[in-house]
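Appendix C reproduces, verbatim, an entry submitted by the partner laboratory led by Prof. M.T., so that reviewers can inspect both the input and the predicted structure.
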Amino acid sequence: MISHLIACIAAFPLKEPVTQAREYKAKLGTPYKIGIVGITSGTNDRSELGESRLVTLEKVQTALAYGGKKVTFVAPAGKKLIIFLATIKNPEKGPIYITSDKTFGLRLYDTTYTAKDVSYRGALTKGGDLLDHHLKPGESIEVATVYEFPSVTPHLRVGMYYHTYMPKNAVMFDLTDKIEPPRSVFAKSNMNYVDWVSIDKSKEFDLDDLTFKVLDCQPIKDNGFAVKVQISNPMPMTGNWGWQYAKAIVRDAKGAETSYYPSFTVGPDWNMTIEPGKSVVGEYRFYPADQAPPKTFVLTQNSTKRTVTVTGL
């Protein structure tokens, strides 16, 4: 519910005076009915409007990238993604409509965030398709809703709702300790990410939507060196890579650095795309003025400025 989340954050202070302790009793794996029904004036008769959902929040994840078949979400500099995996079931007698803007909304509690700090990025099916589904009575669908949060956050306390902002019976979760262990090398905990890491050559690392591993570093002609790198695409959507996506340097034992010549060499038939589940192996070529063998290799993503230093070349 992109419009509801943004409206809530913009129109209401997220740090509210606490008159009594909040109770976060909602649990993962438990279905909760949210939304509204119609009331006939003067009779109190209730009628279904197609605006209620039975939502089970299954899992919560953090990441720097999350993707589907037609879109890949990447957290910008200073941000991370929080992904809410849920099952939505139709509890009504008629059909309900599920789209990226018609899943469920989240209200944030006990925080000083402002509207610019948190944003809704979209929703996908579990299989990675865009949401555009009519659910018949009793039918359900598994979805992932993706939000952008600051890279460092102390906790995750949210209220879940649909259509009506913050009803009195809002479903309230404290998910701080319920987040699954992240896979990113930039994650220092399940809630806190950094923009720079140093890792050993033997370790694979992520840089936004792709993963990398330095295979070796060998001398080449003209007193240069080639750092051989394997790049893999774990996303459901085709990824792109080439010399223009990141700045690459090597440093010698004294810390002196050499920028690479602007090329990333793979082969004559490579078109700068990496298909889902596939890998390419290429070389970054360097020519140090003193011909000293490099000891570290550094990649900095141009778009997000995240940096990985690989040691032990």
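Residues 2-11 form the longest helix (10 residues). Additional entries are available on request from the coordinating office.
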